[in-house]
Structures are given as structure tokens and as C-alpha cells.
Specification:
This protein is an alpha+beta fold. The protein contains 30 helices and ten strands. The strands form three sheets. Strands 5, 6, 7, 8, 9 and 10 form a six-stranded mixed beta sheet that branches.
Length: 711
Amino acid sequence: MQNRCAAPNCINAKRDSCSLFRFPLDAERCKTWVEKCQREDLAGKSPEQLFRHYRLCGKHFEKWTDSSDQSIVMKDDIIPTIFNEPDKPPTKSTKRSKEMEEDAQSKGGKKLKESQDDTTTEGSQASLKEDKQKEYLTLLFEALILLGEQNIPVMMFDGSKRDTLGNFEALLQYRKSCEDEAIKKMHDTDTECCSSLQLSQLTEACEKCIRHRVIEEVMQNGLFSIITEDLVKISEGWFLPVFLRYVDQSNHQCEKFAGFLSFDGDADVLAEKLLSEMVDDWGLNMEQCRGQAHSCSWTHVTKVKAFATKVMEKYPLTVLTFRPTHALNISLANGMALSGVQLVMCTLEKIESFFNHSSLLCLELEHAISIIYPDKEEKVLELKEICSTSWTRRHDVFEVAVELVEALLLCVDSVHDNEDLRWSDKITYNALEISKALADFEFIMALVVLKNTMTLLKAFGRNIQGDATNTHFAANSVKAVLHSLKEVADNIEVYHEFWTEEAVNLAATMEIAVELPRSLLRKHPSDFLQPETYYKQHLAIPVVQHALNEVGKLFTDDHMKALRCLSLIPSVIEENKATQPEEENMLAFKNDIPNAASLTAELHCWWVKWSKKGKGETLPSSLHETLQQADLKFFPNMLALLRRLGVLPTLALESNLNVAYERFKAYMENTPDIAKSKSLAFLKINNDIGYDLDSMVEVYMKLYPGGDDSS
């Protein structure tokens, strides 16, 4: 690793407040840099080696010759051109001066010279030792990053046992066996390259450096939103995954994974701790936060809601929204702490996993559908087509489930019977578990209640998660949705009677007895409580009330005003060109725009620009396309409003921009539980962040100045 400039005769280093720039990875440019340096020993090294280990300081680039600012970002086409001439042989006068100096020292200053020499020697040895330590730490970080990027566990595993160092130690030992001089200098061949304590310290330093880069990038781009996913279980405990959404300087929507927050403690204390960690430890400026969204299952919903409330109390501009990684109906149902609802949601997850296991199981379900609907060919074709998709994630999932439930029960019972011995023991066991759930009247009743309640939200949910035009329309229809839910809540007696009748008829068709939940019967085996009354009090009323409350919280006036600003999208202007976008909605965000006084005139010019477009001309139809319009620079207020929209969690990202979330899902789904590590997961998910090995080494040496004795 080089902390000094690689140019001949150049003494600049990092500690001299002089920026050092990596050699480029591009082969042609890298070759040019080497030629300009006139260092023959670099000619045989690859661009990757030069990029990792060698630097040139800003003094060798014309752009920085007359400038004291050495922190400017290097441009892609810069070539170093300024180099000193090689050292010339000493002249006679130089020799004479040196002889006179030596003579004087020998006569009068011998002791002083010896003292200075000793000090210089000690300093040189300390500097040499530090450089060797830094070089070795760089190799350790390289090994750690290599394993993390490839999702190779640092530990090795034997069954359920975890080795202390495993793959990390094996990689270092391999490099030692390949005569890697840097490692051999630091350790004998029989010595352990790295202790488990030092490995833990390296991982922590690596995570800190990468997070610093992520947070720094987010903060440099202004406004952002925080987004959390459902809790994950890692060997270290339960953690809350946190993403940050922002719009970069190129006006592209971005989402970065910021890391895991430890999820321990009571709701109020935990909320304060989570917020404190994000602000104090991570360095987030929450004054710039404009949105928050949380996906969580019912078991953790109380704590997550307490956290969301704490954020809004301290930072009122952080509007609560929902995250469109799941359909709105599914998100609302997942957050209901009701046994019947959770029975439905868990069973749907099992069904999805079960039929994804084998295409033969899907064929078995299609056969069952044909049996259940013998005289309805169109219905059979429709349901078969639905089953070929991820139907358990659709907006109308509960309606589809009601239509499929008989065929599903017939299918899993057939698989469990396994008369022709086609299925494995694991498959037949899973089929039995699903069959038990489907044949439970609590499941049937809860499914019917969810279907009839969530039908009121189906169109709204589809629109709010649709394109710009549909989302803009949905923002104007939320009051109608709330009114419908309120009407059902006020007349729940009547509605529940119809729902009970539907559930009883479906249960009779499936030969399922109408009864109270089994868990209740085990605790209170009595006949005084009628099923209809029980399910009204403990299922129908809570489901409707939960939907009503959550829609009111998630789609507040401030949230809807923001979504109505989608009227700035050219395709929405074309759709409603008779009406100019409402300035009132935009004035709600006057503190986030550069010049509120000129908003009226600018808005009119923007509307005229797009409403007068000729027929057949393709207009930008999404926020992403609109943000890429070159002439947005002439509309500073419009640009600011569109950028603010871009951080809103409600709006789904373009598929190619949602990389961090996809990597997160892939890591959690494809990594065995015993191999999961929050730090290595963070490294894997953020493998597109430019790693700076020098910074990692410096952070490590600051965190652990004494080092690890074992190293």
C-alpha cells in the first residue's frame, strides 16, 4: 500500500495535506500514467494492482498546479503531465560544502551528530514498522472484502458448528503458501495470520468505512427518506434493516442500504435508541429527512410504530408513508395482531413456498381446479393463468384465495395421501400442515372478512402503486376510500351477517365444521359463546377498524399534497391539460424550493411548455423520465419539487434502481442462517461502493491503536 506519491523524486504524502489519486483501472489510461511516471518497475504490474497500491499526488496534474484546493474529484480523462527531472550528480561545490560540514562535525559536534543520528534511526524504524503494519492490514482487508463480495462465509462450518476463522484464515494461508512476501514478512509460516479478535475488529472497521461513504453520499445530495424492512434474525440477534432513499446530483432516484439496527428493549426506550444510533453513530442529519416507511409483521408492529411516532415527534416533516414492496392490502394485513388474520397470512406464505418447490405440484393444483369447476371452462382457464403467477402477492390476493381454497385443499390432501408414492416425506408433511390450516373454520372466516374488507382498498392500492397518472388519481380519491371504510364500520352488524353467511356456506362445501378457534376451545371449553358473535368482536370489527386507522395514518393531507405534485409530470399534464396544476399543493413545500415568490410564474410556464406539445409527441410519463429533462435547469422550483417527490417512499423505484433491496433479499434468502453476519451482509449489499483500503487501515488504527497482539 502506498501512502506516498509514486512519482520519482516526489515526497508528497497523505499527512502533507496533499490529495493522492489512484491509478485508473482503464488499461490504456493506466499505461499512459505509468509511461508519464517514467518508473520501469511499474510497467509489469496490472491495472488492478496499480489501482489498489499506487497513487499520484495532485501536483502532477495541470489542473491543480496553481490551486491550493487538493480535494477536487479527479475527472475521467485527466493525464499527469508535470514531473521533476531526475536527480543530477552532485557538483564540485556541493562536494566541497559537504567536506567542510563533515570536518566541522568531526571537530566540534561529534556528540550532537550521534544524538541526531540515533533519533533519526529510531524515527525511521518506527516509520518502517508502521508502513509494514499498514501494508499487512491492507492485505487483511483485501481478503475480507473478497470473501464478502463473493458471499463466502468468513467462518467454516461443520454441521451446526462454527469454526473460529475458517475461510478467512484459509485464504491468508494460501497466499503465504504462494510466497506472498507481504504476509511472510509479518508472520512465520507456522503462525496464525489473524486472530478471531482481530478479525472482528477488521470487520467493524470495514463496516464503519463503508457506512461513512454511504451516509456521506446521501447527505451531499440533500433530502432523503428512511425505509425499514421486516426484522431479520442473525446470529448476533434481531436487527432492523434500514435503507435510505435520495435523488443524486444527476437527478436519478437512488436507494442505499445503511445497515442493521439492533432491535432490543421496550418500545419507548428502543425507539429513542434507534433514532440516537442513526443520528449520533451513523451521522444522519434528520432535519433533511422527508419521509419514512416501515414493513413489519404483527409480532413487532408495536415497537416499529413507536419508532415511527418518535421520528415524527422530533422531525415533523418526516411524513409516514408505506413501502410499495408489497401490495397495500398485504401490508395492512401483515400488521394486524389477530390470530385469524395471521393464520391466513402464514398459510399463504406456506402455499407460495410449497408450489414454488416443484412444477409437478403446480400441475397437481391445476388438475384440482378442473375438478372443482367441471362446467366452467373460462373460470378454470382464468384460475390456471393466475396460479402461474405470484398470485399470493397480488392486490386481489384474498379474492383469489377464496376462489382457490377448495382446489387447494383437494390438491394438498391428494399430495399428503401420496397414493402413487410420487412425493417425498418433506413434501407430504408440508402438504399436511397446509391442509390443517385450510380445514380450520377460523381460517375460512378470516379469509372471507379480509376479502370483503380489502375489496374496498383494492382499486386504490393498485392505483397508488401504479404509474404517475394512476398515483395522481389515487391521491385525489383517498377521502372516498376512508368514507367507504367508515360506512362499513358504522354498519358492521349488517355486513358481518353477510360475511358469516358466506363463510358458513364455503365451509359447508368443504365439509368444515363451524366452530370457535381451537386455541380458544382448549382454554375455555364451553358452549356459552356463539361463533358468529365471537368472530364479530374478535375479527370483523378489529379488521375494519385497523384498515380505517392505518389508511388515515399512511395517507395524511401532507402525504397526499406531495403525491398531487405528480401533476407536474408531462403525461399527467397532457391528461388534465384543461386544468393547470394546483399551486396550493406545492406551496406546502415552500421551505424546500429555492424561490417561492416566483413559483406562480414558473408553474404557469411549465404548464404551457408541456400542454402545447404537438400530437403524437411522446411525453415523459414517469418521475424518472421527467427528472432527466435537460431544460429542468431553467425551472429551479419545479426541479426542487420533483426531487422532493423522488425521495418519497410511496413511489416505486425503477426496477434498475432498486439494486440494494434486491441484493438484501438475495442475501437473506440464499445465505444459511448459521452463516449470516450483519457486517458481511452490509459489505455484500454495498459491493458497488468504492472501497478505500487506505481509509479502512486508518480507521482501524484509530479504533485499535495498540493493534492485536496476536498479529
